[in-house]
Write a structure and sequence with these properties.
BirA Bifunctional Protein, domain 2; about 25% helix; single chain; 6-stranded mixed sheet; Rossmann fold; RNA-binding; YbaK protein; alpha+beta; globular
Length: about 575
RNA sequence: CGGGGCGUAGCGUAGUGGCUAGCGCGCCUGCUUUGGGAGCAGGAGACCGGGAGUUCGAAUCUCCCCGCCCCGACCA
């Protein structure tokens, strides 16, 4: 039983000055966590119980799925990370240190290498697969900007799993098993979440999804279709377009367009010259970029911007994308800055990538590759060729859902889980192979699956808190029921203590506010701040042989006969 | 890393050149109070982030450093 009189807990009346987001403010005020350094937090008893409850649920679901728990050190040697090139690739985000002999060590940011090596050390036959193992461990990343309290820390608790399979079908099955386990886990945590398709990025995996808990303070942006449920990370959103249905345009017509460096100024000129009704979306923007050392042109409708992050996510293998600079223009004399059109791209030796909205047969107003000249009726497929269609424009609310063509909304969320098919990158780098049926050596294929455990504490808090404090789902709360004794008479405290003990005997986890010196008001405020889902007040109603039962979330209050209290409270708490 | 802001007691803060650094919460002692963050009285707690400088005198001005928060860039 948690007794308030002895609990290491000091609630704060004022919001801490360094906390902005609600979960952070309340977790500090309610005495769950304390900041030690930027992005580094200590857990006080209430917070640690909560964190362990979440760990417990995750562990139960992982075990139920047949995954096995292991544990690695947080302090790791350099060599394995050297072999996979991550000692360098991870860059400044990696916490590095040296031992007394001058050897390099790191604090693990994620443990692919160690898992791979563990399996390599123990297994060597296809008969041993499939295998899924996981750990719950503190991870370290020297984030450039830790923020939002526990949501993005430099040390945090993560559950990471890895699956090992012989072939792609096996990997798909392991992936699905994790997906289902995650659904069960997050449902039990009481989180609202969307599973969104993500881009697997440079890792080269074939499938990747994120579990996003919607919340205004979240730092991830995603697209959601409220009609059909389609959800995607903005980078992974796809565009569905209809074939061009308009009539074919007349031949290209070049016209003078002095001083129209921007799309807006061009549209003004068009309306003046060719009559009103021209829109930015009738024009074609040619964005010149350098992808690593290759010049590319990205065509987007004039009313759209290129989202470099999204573009890069859709160009696997490309490490750096940047805008053309004057020096780059100098290398392509055929390109007239501000008046570029795709008509001469072939001639200039530039690869043309285009937004899918630039469909075959559609015609556009674009630059004429000559100073102060534009051209209209430039038709895709007739006057220029697109080498490749690519999703690269900035996604906007109101863009159409690729499934059902309904305008989508854009929402913010906290990423609480990420599952993806890693493939053979680590197995190859660390030479994890097994012998197959035919006695041939085969590289194992892997999946990687993470849950932000400490982050989940904040995510649940964000989704459940209200103006007066935290408000946990029962399985996560530090206790099931919070018994508050008010008044000063010994009988009250005696009755409250007995009730608390009886409830505990029944199997409930009880927090008991047995403080003699605190006023009723203080105790009520604290109980509401702390957020245990049910509050039982033993106080003035005791004179009539009753106690008060409150539901934290709804604020409902009711009176219960003391004699029936244990049973009724037990029933109310456990059925909820 | 770029932009903005901040650093005074455990927490929230006042104090923009003047002598003993003030207030609220919390904490300790006593009395009173006890259903919505109680009252009175007394008390403990601060090298004013650090260093250097300017000055008769620095929390206050100058310079350097450190730390923290927010926005952006970045990020399983």
């Amino acid at each position: 039983m948690l007794k308030m009189s002895t609990l290491l807990l000091r609630t704060l009346r004022d919001d801490p000055a360094d906390a902005e987001v609600a979960s952070h403010r309340l977790l500090v005020r309610a005495g769950y966590v304390r900041r030690i350094a930027a992005g580094i937090y200590s857990w006080l008893p209430l917070g640690y119980i909560t964190l362990r409850n979440i760990e417990r649920i995750i562990r139960e679901e992982m075990d139920a799925a047949g995954f096995q728990e292991v544990h690695f050190p947080a302090l790791l040697p350099r060599e394995p990370y050297e072999k996979t090139n991550r000692w360098d690739e991870y860059g400044a985000d990696l916490f590095r240190l040296k031992d007394r002999k001058g050897n390099d060590y790191l604090l693990g940011p994620t443990h692919e290498e160690m898992f791979t090596l563990m399996v390599k050390g123990e297994y060597s036959s296809y008969k041993d697969l499939p295998l899924s193992i996981y750990q719950i461990q503190n991870k370290f990343r020297d984030e450039t900007r830790p923020r939002s309290g526990i949501i993005r820390g430099r040390e945090f608790v993560m559950k990471d799993s890895y699956s090992f399979d012989l072939d792609d079908e096996g990997l798909a099955a392991s992936y699905e098993a994790h997906r289902q386990a995650y659904i069960k886990t997050f449902d039990r945590l009481g989180l609202k979440y969307n599973i969104v398709s993500a881009v697997s990025g440079a890792m080269g995996g074939s499938r990747s999804e994120e579990f996003l808990a919607p919340c205004s303070t979240g730092e991830d942006t995603y697209v959601l279709c409220e009609k059909c449920g389609y959800a995607a990370n903005v980078e992974a959103m796809t565009t569905k377009v209809e074939a061009y249905s308009g009539s074919a345009a007349q031949v290209m017509e070049i016209f003078d367009s002095p001083s129209t460096p921007t799309i807006d100024s061009l549209v003004d000129l068009l309306n003046e010259k060719f009559g009103p009704g021209h829109k930015a979306s009738d024009t074609l923007k040619n964005v010149m970029l350098m992808a690593d050392s290759k010049a590319i042109s990205v065509l987007v409708p004039g009313d759209r911007e290129v989202d470099l992050k999204r573009l890069q996510a859709n160009m696997p293998g490309v490490e750096e994308i940047r805008m053309f600079e004057d020096a780059d223009f100098a290398k392509f004399p055929g390109l007239v800055k501000g008046y570029i059109g795709p008509q001469d791209a072939k001639k200039n030796g530039i690869e043309v990538l285009a937004d899918p909205r630039i469909v075959i047969g559609s015609h556009w107003i674009t630059g004429a590759n000559a100073k102060d000249k534009h051209v209209r009726f430039v038709t895709n497929g007739r006057d220029f060729e697109v080498d490749k269609y690519i999703e690269a424009v900035q996604v906007r609310a109101g863009d159409l859902c690729p499934n059902c063509q309904t305008p989508v909304i854009i929402d913010r969320a906290i990423e609480i889980g990420h599952i993806f098919q890693l493939g053979r990158k680590y197995a190859e780098a660390l030479d994890l192979t097994v012998l197959d049926k035919d006695g041939k050596s085969r590289v194992v294929t892997m999946g990687s699956y993470g849950i932000g455990v400490s982050r989940a504490v904040a995510a649940v808090a964000e989704q459940t808190l209200d103006e007066i404090g935290l408000s946990w789902p029962r399985e996560i709360a530090p206790a099931d029921v919070h018994v508050v004794a008010t008044g000063r008479e010994d009988e009250v405290f005696q009755a409250a203590k007995t009730l608390a003990e009886d409830l505990e005997e029944k199997g409930l986890r009880v927090m008991y506010d047995d403080r003699r010196e605190a006023s009723a008001g203080v105790k009520f405020k604290d109980a509401e701040l702390i957020g245990i889902p049910f509050i039982v007040v033993v106080g003035k109603a005791l004179a009539e042989g009753k106690v008060e039962f409150r539901v934290r979330k709804s604020g409902e209050k009711s009176e219960i006969e003391l004699l029936k209290a244990v049973t009724e409270i037990y029933n109310a708490v456990t059925k909820a």
